[in-house]
Design brief:
About 80% of the residues lie in helices and about 0% in strands. The protein has nine helices and no strands. The chain has helices spanning about 1-15, 20-25, 30-35, 40-70, 75-90, 90-110, 110-130, 145-150, 150-175. The protein is globular. The relative contact order is 0.18.
């Protein structure tokens, strides 16, 4: 929910400054949608919910975060890992915050806990995204920029519902971040 609200938070002002870009972004097929249209939906589901999170957690938390923790300390390592995670996902605010959450999960319970959290996150994101799909095989509906701007309240509601939970989680599990130096 936080990532979806963060997208609204970032793209709503952009829709005023760069309306053509935002409307194009709203209506282009995502990489996830492309995976599902290539053929086997079960294989796409396996990639998105299991394989991608495992590979990303091994890379970002198992290798990078562990190395940076020794060199920079935990807090700086978490920020660096989450920042790179966000940049590579091309949606910075939501992915940065969820990257911090995955770092906390890693320091709390290891790689498997971070991977399980990442898998759950991807599954929930996929379920939310699937509610907007037209499963009849017809072309997806065009989402006009004016509708996106009028639906600002959806992003606000998502942020209102998720920010307290994310902040609670970070504060509650922040004790796992005591610098390792």
């Amino acid at each position: 929910m936080f990532r979806a609200g963060a997208v609204w938070l970032v793209f709503l002002p952009l829709s005023r400054w760069y309306p053509d870009y935002v409307e194009r972004w709203l209506n282009e097929q995502s990489a996830i949608e492309q995976l599902f249209t290539l053929g086997n939906p079960a294989f796409a589901l396996l990639l998105i919910v299991v394989a991608f999170p495992l590979v990303e957690e091994i890379a970002f938390r198992g290798l990078m975060l562990r190395k940076l923790d020794g060199a920079l300390g935990r807090r700086a390592a978490m920020v660096a890992s989450a920042l790179l995670f966000a940049v590579l996902h091309a949606e910075w605010l939501g992915h940065f915050v969820i990257g911090i959450v995955f770092c906390l999960l890693y320091f709390r319970g290891g790689l498997w806990l971070a991977a399980a959290g990442h898998m759950l996150n991807n599954l929930l994101a996929l379920l939310i995204a699937s509610m907007d799909q037209d499963w009849t095989g017809n072309a997806p509906a065009f989402y006009p920029l004016a509708s996106f701007q009028a639906d600002w309240w959806v992003g606000a509601l998502l942020l209102l519902a998720s920010v307290p939970a994310v902040l609670f989680f970070i504060v509650r599990h922040g004790t796992a971040v005591a610098d390792s130096a």
